[in-house]
Amino acid sequence: MKQNPLKRKRNDEINEETLVLMTMHKEDDEHEHTKPSPPSWEILCLVGPYMDPESLAVASCVSATWSKCFSSEDLWKLLPATRHSIFYKAITKEETTKPAWLSYKRLISEAESAAKRRRNNQPAEPKISLSDLVFIVHVSAGSKEAVVVKQGKDLMFGSYERFQIEADVSDSGFTADMKDVSMSWNVVLRNYERMFLISESVKKSLDSKIGWFTDELPATKNRYCDGSNLVGEVKPSFNEEVLDKVVFAIADSRNWKSLFVDDVLRYLQCFLIE
Amino acid sequence: MSSSKKSSDGKSSEIEEAVASLTMPFNKILLTSSDGESFEIDEAVARKFQIIAHMIEDDCAGKAIPIDNVTGDILSKIIEYAKKHVVEPDEDEDEEAKKKLDSWDAKFVEKLDLETIFKIILAANYLNFEGLLGFASQTVADYIKDKTPEEVREIFNIENDFTPEEEEAIRKENAWTFNG
């Protein structure tokens, strides 16, 4: 950051003034601070909307005043939220009003953090069950969109059954001729405390009607899989030309078989629990 | 742009307004800063400031408009920016012009220290000059981007007034930003 060359040094007694709101009426417009005056509350509020989630979070750690300003729900609500809006829509599908425990800041911070973890392949420790999880499927093409929520507790698998999520999108109007269809499925822990993203913005066209595999999923230090040999599996099924269901699973790229439920849980828990 | 320093007492500004109404060329507006500096600008430029645009619409703008909240040095910078942005090039239609303007904007703000930028933000907000408000605010936001809290404190000269317990709690809450 540039500083103008010092012309005149201000008295140190001015220190209190640095905490006062910036005044526009300065009589002596030639004075120079050795350090800039901290921005006023008004400035912080005006700049806030232009910051991304990570900057807001860092700014919240700067001082008590900054923390107050940059933790404000109104600010976090403003963030352009493609990923986050998926979760918001999922939550409000269950209840029509915004639940009290939902904080935009927490929701968005966690979504950003999950994306970061996915990039950094940070593992963790385990112990979760299906009833701890909620699966959120998102399919979109142009202006059409479907969000399907599957409660883990409603899913039944024998422990040696292969895991899959079946999302019914028959009334969303996706057809086999659509290109640029993006499908993702995400796993969240309990009250959106943690999230795991299985596929991010993979766009495909539906015309071949066959399924596909995502890129390799992040590796964990889990004994079960060394390095990641896991990929996401996406299988659309059609009723004539209309997309009826999409089935999601996790597959082992060594044998192209879908994982069993227990193995999926062991994998997911690495990312959902510290 | 003509600029003249006058003493800022009420009487001389009244006279100034009267004189301006009689002598100002059509389509020009005279803005006077809080410290008495005057700027003659085209109406089209003045209209970038929504509060002035509304005054013109509502027919209560004289030819001379006092800007009580903004000093001359800041007002001069704001007018400089406004003149460059009277016509905003369409990114799709004229990519070349847009690039040139972005480059000018970058140089414009590069020369300014933080305090001046803050004053510009407040003034642009007061004048309701959305384009400059957004640009200046984004500039400040960029100072914060990709920095640690310590670095931000250093740049903006902020005192860390958390108690150790508060600081730990806040860091924990925002820990996701710190891990690479």
From TrEMBL, chain A:
InterPro entries: F-box-like_dom_sf (IPR036047)
GO biological process, one term: SCF-dependent proteasomal ubiquitin-dependent protein catabolic process
Record key words, sorted: Nucleus, Ubl conjugation pathway
Major subcellular location class: nucleus
Pathway stated in the Swiss-Prot or TrEMBL entry: Protein modification; protein ubiquitination
Matching SUPFAM superfamilies: F-box domain (SSF81383)
One GO cellular component term noted in the UniProt record for this chain: nucleus
Localization: Nucleus
Subunit structure, interactors included: Component of the SCF-type E3 ligase complex.
Function: Acts as a component of a SCF E3 ubiquitin ligase complexes.
Protein name (record): F-box protein
